[in-house]
Amino acid sequence: MKREAPAKVNLTLDILGKREDGYHDMRMVMQTISLCDTVTVEEIESGFVLETDGDFIPAGKKTLEQQAAEHFFAAAGLAMPGLRVCLTKRTPAYAGLGGGSADVAALLRILRDRYAPGMATEELERIGLLVGSDMPFCVRGGTALAEGRGEVLTDLPPLPDCVFVLCKPDFGIPTGNLFALVDGGELENRPDTDGMMAALGRGDLDGVAARLGNVFEEVLPAEFHEVFAIKARLLEKGALNAAMSGSGPTVFGIFRCMDTAEAAAAALRERYVQTYVALPVKKLG
Questions:
Q1: Is the distance from CB of 247 to CB of 173 less than 8 angstroms?
Q2: How many Å apart are CA 23 and CA 263, to the nearest integer?
Q3: Where do the domains of the chain lie?
Q4: In angstroms, rounded to a whole number, what is the distance separating the alpha carbons of residues 192 and 117?
Q5: Which residues, other chains included, contact 174 with Cβ-Cβ below 8 Å and sequence gap of 6+?
Q6: pLDDT (tens digit, 0 to 9) for every residue of the chain, 285 residues total?
Q7: Check: CATH 3.30.230.10 for 2-155?
Q8: For 163-278, which CATH superfamily applies?
Q9: What gap in Å lies between CA 187 and CA 15, rounded to an integer?
Q10: In whole angstroms, what is the distance from residue 12 CA to residue 199 CA?
Q11: Computed from CA positions of residues 177, 67, 74, 87, in that sequence, does the dihedral angle turn out positive or negative?
Q12: Which of 251, 242, 245 lies closest to 274, judged by CA?
């Protein structure tokens, strides 16, 4: 049992405020991309085993994958068999690309297809939300408006044909610190999410690119301003526009054609090893 686990980018990311439950109300246009991990599942005699060729797996506590599997079998009303889950990692971790969430979402799709093929995608999204706020989108995929914690999804027209170049510098950005900085000030430059949705409706790639935006960029501490240098480099190499994805630090540029994108990626890869070329991916769930 094997499925790909496509990463995501945020075409827009806006934070509307902090909620009483400690989460934040978000408004984002999200897009699945072809950069992906591979998740493989097999039954074993008993227990739950997670193996990966990439990220370190902390000992002594349940992984998100195990939590998701337990929630799935509880929702399906089935006894959970022994499972071995193997992750072949390509999407960089702690990068703003949802790689870990995509792995869990792919696991849920595998379990649904094998053990409960009649389960609706909406139920799979509900199960995913028990594990993380961006799980519902990673289950569904495609192009969507995400609101609430990220779980209130509205399908949008697909992104016009284009190519992404993604570049992750060699540092991480603590997500909690960025949320605290947003909470502590007034944002001046919010993304035009309504305009982004209108451009998608028209199939207007230039209009989409013009409206890329992420409020986290406005509060980015000085030690992470290399993000802006990468954006400038992508624009210099022919990107229609560029933005940081999620809480970063990965920056992505949108290109009209593959040749220009591959040339740009080659140039950035001279300095940034974690540079990738990817395409938009349509709805998964």
A1: yes
A2: 40
A3: 2-155, 163-278
A4: 39
A5: none
A6: 999 999 999 999 999 988 888 888 999 999 999 999 999 999 999 999 999 886 666 666 889 999 999 999 999 999 999 999 999 999 998 899 999 999 999 999 999 999 999 999 999 999 999 998 889 999 999 999 999 999 999 999 999 999 999 999 999 999 888 998 888 778 888 999 999 999 999 999 999 999 999 999 999 999 999 999 999 999 999 999 999 999 999 999 999 999 999 999 999 999 999 999 999 998 776
A7: yes
A8: GHMP kinase, C-terminal domain (3.30.70.890)
A9: 9
A10: 13
A11: positive
A12: 251
Six-digit token pair at 105?
């979402």
Domains 2-155 and 163-278 share a fold: no
Residue linked to tokens 């900085």: 181
What span, in angstroms and rounded, lies between the C-alpha atoms of 172 and 54? 16
Q: Which residues are catalytic?
A: 8, 134
